[in-house]
Amino acid sequence: MTVIAVAGGNGKLGLAIVEALVATGEHQVLILTRDASNMEAKAGVQLIAVNYDDVRELTSVLEANGIEMVICTTNLISSFEPELNLIQAAERSSCT
């Protein structure tokens, strides 16, 4: 069973991807989000709060949860930096 994290998995596109992955029953799916404190898990999926500005923290989260694949659906409002940091973290992670 592949462990897949969907960054931005609470948004419209992200949630559609999460629900499709969950429906297959073939993957463990997690949602990476900036703030999990006020949110309920959607589609029965665990939310993990992350700081997209901290590559070390992102790397630690990926490794601690055994995340093998990351799908990014975050909003590109002002900068590509969060997505670039997530790519760096995935490259540094031993399991992703």
The CATH architecture assignment turns out to be: 3-Layer(aba) Sandwich
What is the class in the CATH system? Alpha Beta
The mean pLDDT is: 91
Low-confidence stretches: none
Distance between the termini: 14 Å
**What is the ordering of alpha helices and beta strands?**
EHEEHEH
Spatial order of the strands in the main sheet?
3-2-1-4
Overall geometric form: globular
Radius of gyration, whole Å: 12 Å
Q: What is the name of the CATH superfamily?
A: NAD(P)-binding Rossmann-like Domain
Number of domains: 1
Work out the number of β strands: 4
Beta-strand share of residues:
15-25%
Textual characterization of the structure:
By secondary structure, the chain is of the alpha/beta class. It has one domain: 3-Layer(aba) Sandwich (Rossmann fold), CATH 3.40.50. It is built from three helices and four strands, in the order βαββαβα. A four-stranded parallel beta sheet has the order 3-2-1-4, with helices on both faces. α1 links the parallel β1 (2-7) and β2 (27-33). α2 (55-64) packs across α3. The model has no long low-confidence stretch (mean pLDDT 91).
